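Write out the 3D structure for:
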Amino acid sequence: MTLLNTPEQINAYRLLALKSRLKMEIVGLKGRGPSAETMIKKEFGLKGNNKKILEQFEKILVDNGILQK
């Protein structure tokens, strides 16, 4: 078990959870509240459909060392 106790680690986890939620929305699973697509678009200023948003968002995560490709 890993303990996430720094603001950077907590934010990285939040961003990875957003990515996972967006992937679920792409296959048709919808949750309550604002969509991950909407939250990511607003926070990062991205444009496009949900698949394009996922590609752009994954690139941001890789560039920031949060996700490895």
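The chain has one domain: 7-63.
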